Amino acid sequence: MRSQTVEALEIVEADLRAARSFYDSWRSDGSSYLQARFRETVSWIAWNPELFPRKHRFFRRAIIRNTYFAVFFVIEPDVTTIVAVLDLRQRPSAIRRLLTKRSQ
Prior knowledge:
This protein has 104 residues and is an alpha+beta fold. The chain is 41% helix and 27% strand. Helix 1 (11-24) crosses helix 2 (30-47).
């Protein structure tokens, strides 16, 4: 697979705000720490999106290193689209429901 442009749905910004807020609540550099890990993960996705496993239907998951969060994305012909950044400490069924809802 060749590298590809990565874009995000608008709602992903709300996901990132919630994640940064969580890390800010217990870590002095929480927001910048999470943002740096997120950018690193997006770079890996852009480099080779097929590197990451399918987790639910056509959604793939890239775990954000050293955090509780993961990036869920879809590979399309010309672009890779991030559909969610979610806390993995929730029920898998809740994650699947949210991904299904965002794909409609």
